[in-house]
Write a structure and sequence with these properties.
271 residues; alpha/beta; Purple Acid Phosphatase, chain A, domain 2; 8-stranded mixed beta sheet; 6-stranded mixed beta sheet
Length: 271
């Protein structure tokens, strides 16, 4: 099957490039599954129900979140009626929503989508390694699901790499999110799991991780902020990762995707 994961959508620019490009990509590439990280989609902080529904209408099969999952207070309520919206599985017990979803996609395949958050330089959460064991054991690859996709929302490259190796052979894809800058280490691990430390973001790259650069520059140079962060404007770039799996759900091909904006365009040659 063919899977496309799109990195953290930041603000209006990020939303627009996804809404503009995704319907055509889904058709042109005959995609079986599309997952979008939407935790920064609403003004750079959180997600609303209307934005979530826009992503599904554009062709997403599921939307993952992260540390900004509940920045928009309405998410505490609507997440319960949004079965394809997945927040980190290692939030404390009793947190609204779900950390994993077994999704039947538009092409009829079953995909386990799991969202987990790292603990290094992040808000303290339950053990991410124990959380992913629980979710993958509950829906084994090739038995309960045709593919398993894991969005690991974390800060450090070391924690992300360790997490990828921990899941190797049990997931089709482990993709890093949160730092908004695409890394160059996409590959297939020995057990057949596609991996990338950070997929980058869908948004305006003429800024600082998707935010207008003036406020971050003030804070770095003067240590005094004068306003809140606002999403950057300008040309939008769609950043993602393309994965093709075999009949057992193991990755056989992997390639980055970058369309539009200021970064060098990259398209998967195998599609």
């Amino acid at each position: 099957m063919r899977i496309l994961f799109l990195g953290d959508v930041v603000g209006r620019v990020g939303r627009q490039v996804v809404l503009d490009e995704l319907p055509g990509l889904r058709k042109a590439w005959s995609l079986d599954c599309v997952v979008v990280n939407g935790e920064n989609a609403a003004g750079g902080f959180g997600i609303t129900e209307s934005i979530y529904e826009e992503f599904l209408a554009a062709g997403a099969d599921a939307v993952t979140l992260g540390n900004h999952a509940f920045d928009q207070r309405e998410a505490l309520v609507f997440i319960e009626r949004a079965p394809r919206l997945v927040r980190p599985a290692n939030y404390p017990a009793g947190t609204p929503g779900r950390g994993a979803a077994l999704v039947e996609t538009q092409s009829g395949v079953r995909v386990l989508v799991v969202n987990v958050m790292g603990r290094t330089f992040m808000d303290p959460m339950d053990d991410p390694f124990a959380a992913i064991d629980r979710e993958l054991d509950a829906a084994p690859l090739g038995l309960v699901c045709d593919a398993a996709l894991v969005d690991f929302h974390a800060e450090t490259t070391s924690e992300k790499q360790a997490f990828g190796h921990w899941c190797d052979g049990r997931a089709s894809l482990v993709i890093g999110t949160h730092t908004h800058v695409p890394t160059a280490d996409h590959r297939i691990l020995p057990g057949g799991t596609a991996y990338m430390t950070d997929v980058g973001m869908c948004g305006a790259y003429d800024g600082v991780i998707g935010m207008d650069k003036e406020e971050p520059l003030r804070r770095f140079t003067r240590k005094i902020g004068s306003s809140r962060f606002e999403p950057a404007t300008g040309p939008g770039t769609l950043s993602g990762l393309a994965v093709e799996t075999d009949a057992n759900g193991r990755a056989v091909k992997v390639a980055p995707v970058r369309i539009g904006g200021l970064l060098e365009p990259v398209l998967p040659a195998f599609w």
